[in-house]
Amino acid sequence: MVKINRHLNVNLQVWRGNVFLFNIIILFFLSLLPIHVLAEEKVNNYPLGLKYEVFRDSTRGVTINEILSGKYNEEFIKSESKYPYFDYTNDAIWLKLEKEVIGEKFNEMTWLEYVDRLEVIDVYFVKSDYTYEVQKGGLYNLGEQKINFRSILFRFDPTDIEVIYIKLIGEELPVSVDTSLYSYEGLIESIKDYKFSSGFFYGFIGALAFYNLFLYFSLRERAYLYYIIYLIAFMLLQFLMNSLDVEYLSENLPVWFIVDAIDYASLLLCVTMVMFGQEFLETKKILPKLHLTLSIFSSLSLFTLLFFWVLPDSITNVIVPLLALIIPILLWISALRVMQMGNRMARLYLLGWTILLVSIILQALSYLDIIAFQAMYFDVIPQIAASIESLLLSLALADKINILKRQREEAQELYTEQLVKEDKMKDDFLFRTSHELKTPLHGIINISQALIEDDDNKKEQLEKKLKLIKSAGYRMSNMVNDILDLAKIKEGLLTIQLSKVDLYLTVSNLFEMFRYIADGKNIKLVNKIDKANRFVIADEDRLIQVFYNLLNNSLKNTNAGSVTISNDVKGGHMYISVEDTGIGIAPHLHEKIFHSYESISTNNDLGNGGLGLGLSISRQLVQLMGGSLDVDWSKEKEGTRFTFSLPISKIESKVYEEVSSIRLPALGATIEEQTSMYSNDMASPMSDRLDILIVDDEVLNVEILKDILVRENYNL
């Protein structure tokens, strides 16, 4: 309970710290806003949107003289917006600003600022005698700028000025109006405020980019690289939206590039935000459908960027804001889905993306003329949102790296534990192997020594001792074969030769092989294989090996009762069961006994009951033959039933004798029985004796071959 409370207290402290940090960030960035944003009207700065009268010249042929003649006075309509917006239009927009509408403050003003980029901005300062001074601005007249600044500035003497007319023409740009009148002091203060806030913004984002670049080179996490690219793309877009290219690069950039630069940067940002979002949220693995959708929209953005000059303006003017709206929404949905799936690293990403998404949606909806145009949608709000979002994304990346680090540490711990476990299993296996091999080896050595020293061995005693030696040899051979088979299975080198196998005769032969052991323990061997359904598709040698392991396991764990083998046909498979009345297997061991090197001791727990390979190899052999092997039923102190399946061989049923013409030697069979069993099959068909040369570096092998071949009447 103390640990839980401590964990909750730590989490609460972290939560409070995050909330406090977030509030500090909001207040800090609000403090950086230019004063005229928080309070619209100042003595030194006078926004003009609502003061204008607007006339739309659809012919673009109306002149200032015609305007001054009063011919179009009735066409001018009072503006109802602080920031009039006319979208993409072929009309020439005329704005009329009368001195009397401004009042006495007009005499303090000496500068007119037009913020938005546009091809043609002609300003006519009309005096009381209807003479006028014209100043040409806009992208086509950047060389006539009196001051290199991000907006277009017009200086005038307010003395005797009665009215100001502004003519706006947009060739490839939407016509939006964000204008102000300034005194000299007001203009200086506005420039100072803007330089400070924009300088802080670009410095902050640049510092984040360099910091994350350092982390990328340290950690080599691709998400950091994509984040840096995203930051650069976002800074580029803000640089262009703030018209800093006009202020600093206008002399070196062609007008057509300045006109389309914001669209280029928007498309590039769409591509980079998808790259970063997909990498950070791991959408390819977690949300494959959304990942594909994001990739499609990213490819569409890249295609539009590459072929921007080929596509008509009517398409690009719609597709760019739509992509800028759809992609952030898809990324926001992806982050929400990832967080709902329990991935905590998506929380900060979702929060940061929500803040930025509001800004992007406002811009896109404004471009599409769905909501009223506001200058701050493209100036102040994006900078604040981007700064907060960039910081939160950086924190989200740090959180992700911490989570990945923790996961790697946990994986390393699990790997270390697995290595320790495997090392212990190796030691246990070596111990069991040495123990299992040592027992029959001692028997062979001791019985052989007794045969050498005892001259009074009678035939029955000799047979009994030789029988024990043979059994020990079989036991050692089976252990070695199990080890070799396991190695072959792991390396994929074990081959299976499938053929038609008579299940009934195979079981009968195996029972003969185990008869000696079963009789010694008073265990009855029962063959219940259905003679009408006796054929399966299997590798006969490997099937015998499976039966051998299962029967050996049953006899070893059964002290009295019976071992029964039966079959049943279901679908296209035959299900073969080996059931005993032994000690049974505890439920929690039903699956574990099929693991390599796991065996059951007499107290029904994992122990030193053998090498623990038989059941593992048997299951894998059955799987290679197209079936499965499992514990079908088991109850402690009552018995166990193993069941495995094999494909059925569909042939006509025939009546077969219950004893095969070729039988397996019984465990414990006498030498005479084995010799007579094999001599019928191995007898030389040739009446003449053959000469055979034996060459082997193992003396034991030479002696065994000599013994066999002499009995078969070969000359050595």
TrEMBL record:
TM region(s), chain numbering: 20-39, 199-217, 224-241, 253-278, 290-312, 318-336, 348-368
Secretion signal, residue range per the UniProt entry: none
Keyword field contains Ion transport: no
MF (Gene Ontology): ATP binding; histidine phosphotransfer kinase activity; phosphorelay sensor kinase activity
Catalytic activity: ATP + protein L-histidine = ADP + protein N-phospho-L-histidine
UniProt feature coiled coil, ranges: 394-421, 445-472
Organism superkingdom: Bacteria
UniProtKB keywords: ATP-binding, Coiled coil, Kinase, Membrane, Nucleotide-binding, Phosphoprotein, Transferase, Transmembrane, Transmembrane helix, Two-component regulatory system
InterPro entries membership: 7TMR_DISM_rcpt_extracell_dom1, 7TMR_DISM_rcpt_extracell_dom2, HATPase_C_sf, HATPase_dom, His_kinase_dom, HisK_dim/P_dom, HisK_dim/P_sf, Sig_transdc_His_kin-like_C
Enzyme Commission designation: 2.7.13.3
One Gene Ontology cellular component annotation held by this UniProt entry: plasma membrane
Record-annotated Histidine kinase domain positions: 432-650
Protein name, UniProt field: histidine kinase
Organism: Bacillus solimangrovi
